């Protein structure tokens, strides 16, 4: 059944009639008058109803179709079915709704989604070829237990790459292959046995990492960040006896600043004096979009205080579930024991494929290509946001949009999922709920430049909707 539309056009408006029709249909969809799969009037029918040319309605429908809001077929034009997914009702507090946060990471591929690389830049054919070859080699080999630390050749390749790309001097014995960043952090917390101790965490910081500390019976102590990174002086005052510090020095997660050299030296000196460990999450450290990437914090470590965690999730694909931990020589034996009994490395074939990808020089070429692509997308998005009255601040592979106090960023993000957008709310990144800032993190890798204005306009409308709700 065709839904009757009550559109009112203003011939005196500066907006073209095509745009008025498009916006009127969008408003009908947002308000629930037009539900998913509802049938729209034909071009001729709506043109006759509104008293406009058929081509005017056709142009409005074509743009809505380009935006994936409506779908045309031989059976007529219908409202597109929206993306659906679980909608948690529990608020973000005390880690109780981390499944909701993780849903933001796994809702795609979607526009503005954080934490996933661009599909169009993924070297699918090459990776597929390497993986098939590696699986055949694994199946042809004698059935033996793989090294729980990871394959020797892969660990050697990572050690060599870290020396060139991140300035970290290490050998393969210090490298442990893990199931992504999460697996690496779990291994570190198990090996260090920090139960009952306190840890500095950046404020704001990655919610899943904070929850991992809590599950290991470690108390997170929020330490603010400024333009130079984590405020070491504040940490000394608020938690002077902390046993560990978790930092993202390459590009702070989620605000994007790089820890200054002075602040790095200050942090290393404090760790040496207090006997604390530093867990370096090398979040986007190699994905600096402007200028040269700064070396890893571990590159400055001369006293064996820094444990470096990296992964291939942002650079190749999170589905590989490949990460690594680089530990000081004093911890090698302890970590070797931990992986035997707890978290052995992923299967040899996937390690072998990525090892070959690195060894043949494909990885460095891939990084150069995606950095150029992401840089163009980030600039494009920041410009488009400005055209719709939204101030966007570049932050690594995202743009941060601050919202007015009281605007529920979590609700905005959930609503955006229905329209093929997956921005991440900023407030859950703050450990103390009543000090959290409202905002949205707009990931850039999966941005479609040709449709950026449409999505920014849609986001603007969603934000305005919740701003009105707050004020009403």
Walk me through what this model shows.
This protein folds into three domains: 17-79, Arc Repressor Mutant, subunit A; 98-120 and 364-471, Aspartate Aminotransferase, domain 1 (Alpha-Beta Complex), CATH 3.90.1150.10; 145-360, Type I PLP-dependent aspartate aminotransferase-like (Major domain) (Aspartate Aminotransferase, domain 2). Helix content is 41%, strand content 13%. The protein has helices spanning 17-31, 43-50, 54-66, 98-105, 124-140, 152-165, 180-192, 207-215, 232-238, 261-274, 332-341, 348-359, 362-387, 409-417, 452-471, and strands at 70-73, 76-79, 175-178, 198-203, 219-226, 229-230, 244-247, 277-281, 306-311, 323-326, 392-395, 398-402, 424-425, 439-443. The strands form three sheets. It has an eight-stranded mixed beta sheet with strand order 3-10-9-8-7-4-5-6, with helices on both faces. A four-stranded antiparallel beta sheet has the order 11-12-14-13. The radius of gyration is 25 Å and the shape is globular. Strand 4 (198-203), helix 8 and strand 5 (219-226) form a beta-alpha-beta unit. Residues 83-97 have low confidence and may be disordered. By secondary structure, it is α/β, with parallel strands linked by helices.
């Amino acid at each position: 059944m065709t839904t009757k539309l009550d559109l009112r056009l203003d011939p005196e408006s500066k907006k073209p009639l095509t745009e008025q029709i498009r916006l009127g249909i969008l408003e009908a969809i947002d308000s629930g008058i037009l539900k998913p799969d509802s049938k729209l009037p034909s071009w001729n029918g709506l043109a006759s109803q509104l008293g406009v040319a058929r081509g005017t309605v056709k142009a409005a429908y074509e743009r809505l179709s380009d935006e994936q809001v409506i779908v045309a077929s031989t059976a007529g034009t219908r409202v597109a079915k929206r993306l659906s997914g679980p909608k948690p009702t529990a608020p973000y507090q005390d880690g109780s709704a981390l499944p909701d946060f993780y849903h933001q990471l796994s809702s795609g591929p979607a526009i503005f989604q954080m934490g996933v690389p661009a599909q169009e830049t993924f070297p699918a054919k090459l990776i597929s070829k390497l993986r098939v070859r590696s699986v055949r080699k694994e199946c042809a080999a004698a059935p033996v237990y793989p090294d729980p630390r990871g394959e020797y050749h892969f660990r050697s390749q990572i050690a060599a790459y870290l020396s060139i790309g991140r300035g970290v001097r290490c050998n393969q014995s210090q490298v442990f292959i893990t199931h992504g960043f999460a697996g690496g952090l779990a291994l570190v917390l198990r090996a260090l046995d920090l139960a009952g101790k306190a840890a500095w965490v950046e404020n704001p910081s990655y919610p899943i990492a904070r929850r991992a500390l809590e599950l290991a019976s470690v108390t997170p102590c929020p330490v603010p960040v400024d333009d130079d990174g984590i405020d070491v002086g504040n940490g000394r005052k608020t938690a002077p006896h902390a046993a560990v510090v978790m930092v993202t020095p390459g590009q702070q997660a989620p605000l994007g600043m790089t820890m200054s050299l002075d602040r790095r030296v200050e942090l290393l000196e404090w760790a040496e004096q207090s006997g604390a460990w530093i867990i370096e999450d090398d979040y986007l450290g190699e994905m600096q979009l402007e200028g040269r990437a700064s070396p890893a914090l571990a590159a400055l470590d001369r006293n064996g205080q820094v444990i470096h965690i990296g992964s291939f999730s942002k650079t190749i694909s999170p589905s590989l579930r490949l990460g690594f931990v680089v530990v000081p020589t004093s911890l090698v034996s302890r970590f070797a024991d931990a992986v035997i009994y707890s978290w052995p490395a992923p299967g040899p074939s996937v390690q072998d494929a990525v090892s070959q990808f690195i060894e043949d020089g494909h990885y460095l070429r891939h990084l150069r290509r995606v950095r150029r692509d992401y840089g163009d997308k980030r600039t494009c998005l920041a410009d488009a946001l400005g055209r719709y009255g939204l101030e966007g601040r570049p932050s690594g592979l995202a743009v941060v949009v601050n919202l007015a106090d009281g605007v529920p960023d979590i609700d905005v993000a959930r609503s955006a999922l229905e329209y093929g957008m997956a921005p991440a709310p900023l407030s859950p990144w703050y450990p103390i709920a009543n000090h959290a800032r409202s905002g949205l993190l707009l990931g850039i890798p999966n941005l479609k430049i040709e449709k950026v204005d449409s999505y920014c306009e849609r986001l603007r409308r969603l934000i305005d909707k919740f701003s009105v709700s707050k004020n009403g």
